[in-house]
Give the backbone structure.
Amino acid sequence: MSLKEGLDKAKMIAEAITTDTPTGKKWFEERVEICNACEYNSANVLKHKRKMGHSIHEGKCYTATFGKSGNFCTACNCCIELKASIKRTACGLTDLGREPKWLALEAEAPSGASVFSVDGHDYPISYEEAKFVVDLGTTNQEIINFKFGLFVPTKYTFTGARVSCGCTFATHIDIDEARKEFSIRLNTAGFSLERPTSRELFVQYGNKEITVRFKVQKTQ
């Protein structure tokens, strides 16, 4: 684990401990359900396969969750209750270079800007090659309507937004001084059936530009 990854994990743990658990939220409950059935959940590890320190780590998770759960992911060593409660985290299997069982619903750029899902629109979100990527999955619909939130530190002043083509329509409202909620209408009429199609929204903050890419696989 790199120093940055270690610091990010410590930051995540601190945030999870000081934030109310999103009990009842669909995305959180689905994550916990997946983790409860996973072979990497410490609770599902057979007794003869438990490693030295297993019980100690469970004790730490009990303390960190104020007695709610001692279960931790043996792939990433994170307390399951805490990690699942943070939208920008992904399943611990990513630490082993394996396909994750659940994905992040929020991504953060080095600048501090972040894109996050809005309740009811819990699409996987990542930050790749200096772009935020919202994965809309597969659809056979000609029109897709969805929303996402954008946070930008208040030292940057919003000056406008534009889309990459006429098939994409975007409007926004202010959530607060630093966050905006974007409503997107995407026409998929000309999208490929063979590979995912991408469209982009460019948001300007002074002389800085944030790119949000929407990716969708069209089906018949």
The domain at 106-218 is CATH 2.60.40.10 (Immunoglobulin-like). The mean pLDDT is 91.
